Amino acid sequence: MSGIVWNDRFNVGVESIDRAHQRLFSIVGKLLSLNEDTEKQQYACREGIKYFKSYTMKHFAEEEAYMKSIGYKDYEVHKCFHDNMRDHTIPALEAELEEQNYSTGAIQHFLGMCIGWLNGHIMIEDHAIVGHSYKKWEHQPAESEIDSLEKAAVQALDNLYRIKAKTVSMRYGGEDFASGKALCFRLLYSSPAGQRQQVYIVYEEKLILNMVGDLFGKQIDRIDKTVSYAVKMLSPKFMSCISRHFSFTEGTKLEKTDLMTFEQFRNAFERQFPPYSLLFGTGGKGYFALCIQV
Length: 294
Prior knowledge:
Layout: H1 15-34, H2 38-69, H3 75-99, H4 104-129, H5 143-161, E1 166-169, E2 182-190, E3 196-204, H6 205-216, H7 225-242, E4 253-260, H8 262-271, E5 276-281, E6 288-293
Antiparallel strand pairs: 1-5, 2-3, 2-4, 3-6, 5-6
């Protein structure tokens, strides 16, 4: 990606908010250009990302003040998305940048996540402030439930895959991974009463290569049918580890596991936003997403 251009479809109709969004896009655009110059990359990106973070926090405060001034009824839900970006996503991405010494891959991760988040948040959540769209998540689970799921997922990733994971987002919006390559599985469960529950597990391609390479005890260079099938069989096992701490409806059983493209996952995600949607980083090995539609 060599650049990013503001599009009027992002306009909310509130001058101060639109001006701030344009500025954020401008900052990201400059960072994308810097990322193409390896000689200037590290120092310039480090300073640029600091500025992006600072300006983002300023914008969040101003947008929250505006929502309060008009009595926006979903202020608390909207603020949760800001808090998650500020307290989880940006710090996790910053840690990855430092761990990888501002490598090209780490910078691409940072910028890819920021671009995806800005696009989704502006078009859905911010437009909802002025009544131009519906909100992504109509039903928000309790924070204690999300915390429990987060801890269970981190533990399961360690126990099953020997992967040390850190939370990047507790409200993942289905954004593309920077690499653009991922393997997605949909696990369909049904209860005795006929209720259907869907789980989406998304592995960034390089995470699979690292993960399966460790399992096979050798370097894996590509995802073939053997690798894909191995991960497909392991995914329900991952969910069985999760279920010890995060319970489905009693008696729920797995019906089938489907392999999906990332585009199919995104389409399913957009049709019905999962109330539980978490994104994890693995110390530069790749991203992992867990989305549960109950």
